[in-house]
Protein backbone atom coordinates (compact mmCIF):
# COMPACT_ATOMS: atom_id res chain seq x y z
CA UNK A 1 0.00 0.00 0.00
CA UNK A 2 1.32 3.43 -0.98
CA UNK A 3 0.99 5.72 2.04
CA UNK A 4 -0.08 9.32 1.69
CA UNK A 5 1.89 12.07 3.39
CA UNK A 6 -0.60 13.20 6.01
CA UNK A 7 1.57 16.13 7.09
CA UNK A 8 0.50 17.96 3.92
CA UNK A 9 -3.11 18.15 5.11
CA UNK A 10 -4.35 21.13 7.09
CA UNK A 11 -6.47 19.07 9.50
CA UNK A 12 -3.29 17.24 10.61
CA UNK A 13 -1.04 20.33 10.72
CA UNK A 14 -3.70 22.04 12.83
CA UNK A 15 -3.33 19.39 15.54
CA UNK A 16 0.19 20.64 16.28
CA UNK A 17 -1.18 24.11 17.06
CA UNK A 18 -2.22 25.10 20.56
CA UNK A 19 -5.75 24.13 21.53
CA UNK A 20 -8.18 27.07 21.81
CA UNK A 21 -7.94 28.80 25.19
CA UNK A 22 -11.59 28.77 26.25
CA UNK A 23 -12.96 28.54 29.78
CA UNK A 24 -15.71 25.94 30.29
CA UNK A 25 -19.18 27.40 30.69
CA UNK A 26 -21.33 24.24 30.59
CA UNK A 27 -24.39 25.78 32.25
CA UNK A 28 -24.93 28.56 29.72
CA UNK A 29 -27.20 27.84 26.74
CA UNK A 30 -25.03 27.29 23.67
CA UNK A 31 -26.33 28.03 20.17
CA UNK A 32 -24.44 26.93 17.06
CA UNK A 33 -25.48 28.74 13.87
CA UNK A 34 -24.02 26.91 10.90
CA UNK A 35 -24.72 24.15 8.44
CA UNK A 36 -22.93 21.15 6.97
CA UNK A 37 -19.37 20.73 8.18
CA UNK A 38 -19.64 23.91 10.26
CA UNK A 39 -22.15 22.18 12.51
CA UNK A 40 -22.14 18.41 12.08
CA UNK A 41 -18.81 17.80 13.83
CA UNK A 42 -19.89 19.31 17.12
CA UNK A 43 -23.37 17.85 16.69
CA UNK A 44 -21.71 14.42 16.65
CA UNK A 45 -19.65 15.17 19.75
CA UNK A 46 -22.47 16.85 21.66
CA UNK A 47 -24.73 13.88 21.02
CA UNK A 48 -22.03 11.40 22.06
CA UNK A 49 -21.48 13.17 25.37
CA UNK A 50 -25.17 13.88 25.92
CA UNK A 51 -24.60 17.61 26.35
CA UNK A 52 -27.56 19.61 27.59
CA UNK A 53 -28.64 23.15 26.75
CA UNK A 54 -27.18 23.00 23.22
CA UNK A 55 -29.14 24.21 20.19
CA UNK A 56 -28.20 23.79 16.53
CA UNK A 57 -29.52 26.28 13.99
CA UNK A 58 -28.81 24.57 10.67
CA UNK A 59 -32.09 25.46 8.99
CA UNK A 60 -34.13 28.39 7.68
CA UNK A 61 -37.16 28.02 9.95
CA UNK A 62 -38.02 31.29 11.70
CA UNK A 63 -40.56 29.43 13.84
CA UNK A 64 -37.97 26.99 15.15
CA UNK A 65 -35.47 29.78 15.79
CA UNK A 66 -38.03 31.79 17.75
CA UNK A 67 -38.61 28.81 20.04
CA UNK A 68 -34.88 28.68 20.78
CA UNK A 69 -34.66 32.44 21.32
CA UNK A 70 -37.60 32.43 23.73
CA UNK A 71 -35.95 29.67 25.75
CA UNK A 72 -32.44 31.17 25.94
CA UNK A 73 -32.91 34.93 25.93
CA UNK A 74 -32.81 35.49 29.71
CA UNK A 75 -30.10 32.92 30.47
CA UNK A 76 -26.93 34.58 29.06
CA UNK A 77 -26.62 32.40 25.97
CA UNK A 78 -23.42 31.89 24.02
CA UNK A 79 -24.02 32.22 20.27
CA UNK A 80 -21.43 30.86 17.82
CA UNK A 81 -21.86 31.68 14.11
CA UNK A 82 -19.72 29.53 11.80
CA UNK A 83 -19.10 29.57 8.05
CA UNK A 84 -15.78 28.83 6.36
CA UNK A 85 -16.55 30.99 3.33
CA UNK A 86 -18.46 33.61 5.28
CA UNK A 87 -21.10 33.54 2.54
CA UNK A 88 -23.30 30.61 3.57
CA UNK A 89 -26.78 32.03 3.02
CA UNK A 90 -28.52 30.12 5.82
CA UNK A 91 -25.89 31.19 8.34
CA UNK A 92 -25.99 34.85 7.24
CA UNK A 93 -29.77 35.04 7.60
CA UNK A 94 -29.92 33.23 10.93
CA UNK A 95 -27.02 35.22 12.42
CA UNK A 96 -28.82 38.47 11.52
CA UNK A 97 -32.06 37.08 12.94
CA UNK A 98 -30.56 36.01 16.27
CA UNK A 99 -28.63 39.27 16.61
CA UNK A 100 -31.73 41.37 16.06
CA UNK A 101 -33.95 39.15 18.21
CA UNK A 102 -31.55 39.14 21.17
CA UNK A 103 -30.76 42.84 21.07
CA UNK A 104 -30.95 44.18 24.59
CA UNK A 105 -30.33 40.76 26.16
CA UNK A 106 -27.08 39.70 27.78
CA UNK A 107 -25.33 37.27 25.39
CA UNK A 108 -21.83 36.25 24.31
CA UNK A 109 -21.20 36.34 20.54
CA UNK A 110 -18.50 34.37 18.74
CA UNK A 111 -17.81 34.33 15.00
CA UNK A 112 -15.73 31.81 13.04
CA UNK A 113 -14.90 32.30 9.37
CA UNK A 114 -11.88 32.84 7.18
CA UNK A 115 -10.17 36.16 7.86
CA UNK A 116 -11.25 37.80 4.63
CA UNK A 117 -13.73 40.29 3.20
CA UNK A 118 -16.82 38.13 3.47
CA UNK A 119 -20.34 39.11 4.50
CA UNK A 120 -20.11 37.33 7.85
CA UNK A 121 -16.61 38.62 8.60
CA UNK A 122 -17.88 42.19 8.28
CA UNK A 123 -20.96 41.35 10.37
CA UNK A 124 -18.72 39.97 13.13
CA UNK A 125 -16.61 43.12 13.01
CA UNK A 126 -19.58 45.47 12.97
CA UNK A 127 -21.11 43.86 16.07
CA UNK A 128 -17.87 43.18 17.97
CA UNK A 129 -18.10 39.40 17.95
CA UNK A 130 -15.16 37.55 19.48
CA UNK A 131 -13.49 36.33 16.31
CA UNK A 132 -11.61 33.09 15.60
CA UNK A 133 -10.22 32.47 12.10
CA UNK A 134 -11.31 29.30 10.33
CA UNK A 135 -8.18 27.52 9.02
CA UNK A 136 -7.98 28.25 5.31
CA UNK A 137 -6.50 24.85 4.46
CA UNK A 138 -9.21 22.81 6.24
CA UNK A 139 -12.58 22.17 4.60
CA UNK A 140 -15.76 22.11 6.66
CA UNK A 141 -16.25 18.35 6.74
CA UNK A 142 -12.63 17.90 7.91
CA UNK A 143 -12.81 20.64 10.56
CA UNK A 144 -13.80 18.67 13.66
CA UNK A 145 -10.33 18.98 15.23
CA UNK A 146 -10.20 22.76 14.66
CA UNK A 147 -11.78 25.74 16.44
CA UNK A 148 -15.02 24.98 14.56
CA UNK A 149 -15.85 22.10 16.92
CA UNK A 150 -13.22 22.51 19.62
CA UNK A 151 -14.43 25.89 20.93
CA UNK A 152 -17.96 24.62 21.68
CA UNK A 153 -16.48 21.31 22.88
CA UNK A 154 -14.33 23.23 25.39
CA UNK A 155 -17.25 25.46 26.41
CA UNK A 156 -19.21 22.34 27.42
CA UNK A 157 -16.34 21.26 29.65
CA UNK A 158 -14.74 18.47 27.61
CA UNK A 159 -11.01 17.72 27.32
CA UNK A 160 -10.03 19.23 23.97
CA UNK A 161 -6.33 18.45 24.37
CA UNK A 162 -7.00 14.76 25.03
CA UNK A 163 -9.39 14.51 22.07
CA UNK A 164 -6.91 16.08 19.67
CA UNK A 165 -4.01 14.02 21.01
CA UNK A 166 -6.01 10.86 20.41
CA UNK A 167 -6.45 11.86 16.76
CA UNK A 168 -2.80 12.83 16.41
CA UNK A 169 -1.74 9.43 17.77
CA UNK A 170 -3.62 7.70 14.93
CA UNK A 171 -2.27 10.03 12.23
CA UNK A 172 1.30 9.59 13.48
CA UNK A 173 0.80 5.81 13.66
CA UNK A 174 -0.31 5.89 10.04
CA UNK A 175 2.73 7.93 9.01
CA UNK A 176 5.06 5.49 10.76
CA UNK A 177 3.38 2.42 9.22
CA UNK A 178 1.89 1.13 12.48
CA UNK A 179 -1.73 1.78 11.47
CA UNK A 180 -3.32 0.81 8.15
CA UNK A 181 -6.85 1.90 7.18
CA UNK A 182 -9.39 -0.75 6.29
CA UNK A 183 -9.93 -1.74 2.65
CA UNK A 184 -13.42 -3.01 3.49
CA UNK A 185 -15.26 -0.39 1.42
CA UNK A 186 -13.20 -0.93 -1.74
CA UNK A 187 -13.27 -4.73 -1.48
CA UNK A 188 -17.04 -4.76 -0.94
CA UNK A 189 -17.60 -2.34 -3.82
CA UNK A 190 -15.53 -4.56 -6.13
CA UNK A 191 -17.92 -7.39 -5.20
CA UNK A 192 -20.89 -5.37 -6.48
CA UNK A 193 -21.96 -3.68 -3.24
CA UNK A 194 -22.68 -0.01 -3.95
CA UNK A 195 -24.75 0.85 -0.84
CA UNK A 196 -23.12 1.32 2.57
CA UNK A 197 -25.52 0.89 5.48
CA UNK A 198 -24.06 2.49 8.60
CA UNK A 199 -25.98 0.85 11.44
CA UNK A 200 -25.59 2.41 14.88
CA UNK A 201 -26.47 0.83 18.21
CA UNK A 202 -26.81 3.59 20.80
CA UNK A 203 -28.86 6.76 20.27
CA UNK A 204 -25.86 8.95 21.08
CA UNK A 205 -24.28 7.75 17.83
CA UNK A 206 -27.09 9.13 15.64
CA UNK A 207 -25.42 12.48 14.98
CA UNK A 208 -22.04 10.83 14.44
CA UNK A 209 -23.73 8.92 11.62
CA UNK A 210 -24.90 12.18 10.02
CA UNK A 211 -21.37 13.57 10.30
CA UNK A 212 -19.90 10.45 8.71
CA UNK A 213 -22.46 10.42 5.89
CA UNK A 214 -21.41 13.93 4.88
CA UNK A 215 -17.71 13.08 5.15
CA UNK A 216 -18.14 9.96 3.02
CA UNK A 217 -20.61 11.28 0.43
CA UNK A 218 -19.05 14.70 -0.24
CA UNK A 219 -15.50 13.37 -0.27
CA UNK A 220 -16.08 10.30 -2.46
CA UNK A 221 -19.16 11.00 -4.60
CA UNK A 222 -17.20 11.96 -7.71
CA UNK A 223 -17.00 8.87 -9.91
CA UNK A 224 -19.61 10.10 -12.45
CA UNK A 225 -22.54 7.71 -11.98
CA UNK A 226 -20.49 5.22 -9.95
CA UNK A 227 -19.52 4.95 -6.30
CA UNK A 228 -20.95 4.07 -2.89
CA UNK A 229 -24.08 5.65 -1.42
CA UNK A 230 -23.99 5.79 2.42
CA UNK A 231 -27.21 5.30 4.40
CA UNK A 232 -27.95 5.36 8.13
CA UNK A 233 -29.95 2.75 10.01
CA UNK A 234 -30.66 2.89 13.73
CA UNK A 235 -30.43 -0.32 15.69
CA UNK A 236 -32.35 -2.00 17.09
CA UNK A 237 -35.30 0.10 15.83
CA UNK A 238 -34.66 -0.47 12.13
CA UNK A 239 -34.40 -4.21 12.67
CA UNK A 240 -38.21 -3.99 12.76
CA UNK A 241 -38.54 -1.99 9.55
CA UNK A 242 -35.60 -2.51 7.19
CA UNK A 243 -33.81 -5.72 8.12
CA UNK A 244 -36.18 -7.88 6.04
CA UNK A 245 -35.04 -5.95 2.96
CA UNK A 246 -31.39 -6.11 3.98
CA UNK A 247 -31.47 -9.87 4.42
CA UNK A 248 -33.80 -11.05 1.63
CA UNK A 249 -33.79 -8.06 -0.76
CA UNK A 250 -31.19 -6.99 -3.33
CA UNK A 251 -27.71 -8.05 -2.29
CA UNK A 252 -26.19 -4.67 -3.16
CA UNK A 253 -25.24 -3.53 0.34
CA UNK A 254 -22.28 -3.60 2.66
CA UNK A 255 -22.73 -2.97 6.38
CA UNK A 256 -20.77 -1.08 9.00
CA UNK A 257 -22.13 -1.63 12.51
CA UNK A 258 -21.06 0.54 15.46
CA UNK A 259 -22.03 -0.30 19.03
CA UNK A 260 -21.47 2.00 21.99
CA UNK A 261 -21.63 0.19 25.31
CA UNK A 262 -23.97 1.81 27.81
CA UNK A 263 -24.14 1.14 31.53
CA UNK A 264 -27.38 1.19 33.49
CA UNK A 265 -28.74 -0.31 36.69
CA UNK A 266 -32.24 -1.25 35.50
CA UNK A 267 -32.72 -5.05 35.46
CA UNK A 268 -35.47 -7.14 33.88
CA UNK A 269 -35.47 -10.89 34.51
CA UNK A 270 -31.96 -10.52 35.84
CA UNK A 271 -30.57 -8.83 32.74
CA UNK A 272 -29.63 -5.15 32.22
CA UNK A 273 -31.10 -3.22 29.30
CA UNK A 274 -27.72 -3.00 27.55
CA UNK A 275 -27.57 -6.79 27.53
CA UNK A 276 -30.65 -6.80 25.27
CA UNK A 277 -29.12 -4.09 23.07
CA UNK A 278 -25.91 -6.09 22.75
CA UNK A 279 -27.82 -9.26 21.87
CA UNK A 280 -29.64 -7.36 19.09
CA UNK A 281 -26.31 -6.03 17.84
CA UNK A 282 -24.61 -9.44 17.91
CA UNK A 283 -27.49 -11.24 16.23
CA UNK A 284 -27.78 -8.65 13.47
CA UNK A 285 -24.02 -8.61 12.96
CA UNK A 286 -24.12 -12.35 12.29
CA UNK A 287 -27.02 -11.94 9.86
CA UNK A 288 -25.63 -9.25 7.53
CA UNK A 289 -22.78 -9.80 5.08
CA UNK A 290 -20.35 -8.32 4.26
CA UNK A 291 -20.16 -6.65 7.65
CA UNK A 292 -17.56 -4.54 9.38
CA UNK A 293 -18.06 -3.65 13.03
CA UNK A 294 -16.67 -1.36 15.72
CA UNK A 295 -17.26 -1.64 19.47
CA UNK A 296 -16.77 1.50 21.57
CA UNK A 297 -16.44 0.76 25.28
CA UNK A 298 -15.65 4.22 26.64
CA UNK A 299 -16.28 7.90 25.99
CA UNK A 300 -12.75 8.81 27.01
CA UNK A 301 -11.92 11.82 24.81
CA UNK A 302 -8.66 10.26 23.63
CA UNK A 303 -10.41 7.11 22.44
CA UNK A 304 -13.13 9.12 20.69
CA UNK A 305 -10.49 11.28 19.01
CA UNK A 306 -8.89 8.11 17.65
CA UNK A 307 -12.25 6.93 16.33
CA UNK A 308 -12.86 10.15 14.37
CA UNK A 309 -9.30 10.10 13.01
CA UNK A 310 -9.80 6.53 11.76
CA UNK A 311 -12.96 7.69 9.95
CA UNK A 312 -10.87 10.33 8.16
CA UNK A 313 -8.26 7.77 7.15
CA UNK A 314 -10.85 5.30 5.85
CA UNK A 315 -12.23 7.98 3.53
CA UNK A 316 -8.80 9.24 2.43
CA UNK A 317 -7.67 5.67 1.78
CA UNK A 318 -10.64 4.96 -0.50
CA UNK A 319 -10.17 8.29 -2.29
CA UNK A 320 -6.54 7.34 -2.91
CA UNK A 321 -7.56 3.91 -4.21
CA UNK A 322 -10.04 5.54 -6.60
CA UNK A 323 -7.63 8.37 -7.53
CA UNK A 324 -10.06 11.17 -6.69
CA UNK A 325 -9.67 14.42 -4.76
CA UNK A 326 -11.53 14.04 -1.42
CA UNK A 327 -11.31 17.73 -0.56
CA UNK A 328 -13.28 19.47 -3.29
CA UNK A 329 -17.02 19.43 -4.04
CA UNK A 330 -17.54 20.58 -7.63
CA UNK A 331 -21.20 19.55 -7.87
CA UNK A 332 -22.05 21.54 -4.73
CA UNK A 333 -20.41 24.64 -6.17
CA UNK A 334 -22.64 24.25 -9.24
CA UNK A 335 -25.68 23.87 -6.97
CA UNK A 336 -24.81 27.08 -5.12
CA UNK A 337 -24.79 28.97 -8.42
CA UNK A 338 -28.15 27.49 -9.37
CA UNK A 339 -29.65 28.54 -6.02
CA UNK A 340 -28.21 32.04 -6.39
CA UNK A 341 -29.99 32.46 -9.70
CA UNK A 342 -33.33 32.17 -7.84
CA UNK A 343 -32.49 34.63 -5.06
Instruction: Tell me the CATH superfamily of the largest domain.
Output: Glucose-6-phosphate isomerase like protein, domain 1
DSSP E strands, number:
11
CATH fold title of the largest domain = Rossmann fold
Tally of individual helices: 13
Overall body shape? globular
Main sheet makeup = 5 strands, parallel
Termini separation (Å)? 48 Å
Overall number of domains: 2
Helicity level? 40-55%
Instruction: State the strand order across the main sheet.
Output: 2-1-3-4-5
User: If you compute it from the alpha carbons, what radius of gyration comes out, rounded to the nearest whole angstrom?
Assistant: 21 Å
CATH class of the largest domain: Alpha Beta
Amino acid sequence: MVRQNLSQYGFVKNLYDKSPDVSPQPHHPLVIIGTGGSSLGFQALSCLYDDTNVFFVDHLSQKDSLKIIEFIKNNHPIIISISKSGETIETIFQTHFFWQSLRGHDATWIGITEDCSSTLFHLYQDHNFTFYPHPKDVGGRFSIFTVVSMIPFALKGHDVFKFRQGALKIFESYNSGLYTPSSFFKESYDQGKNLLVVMTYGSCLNQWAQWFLQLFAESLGKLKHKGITPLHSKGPMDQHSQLQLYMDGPQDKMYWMIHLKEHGDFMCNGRPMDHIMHACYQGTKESLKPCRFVDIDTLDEGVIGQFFAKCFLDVLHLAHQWDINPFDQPAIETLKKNISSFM
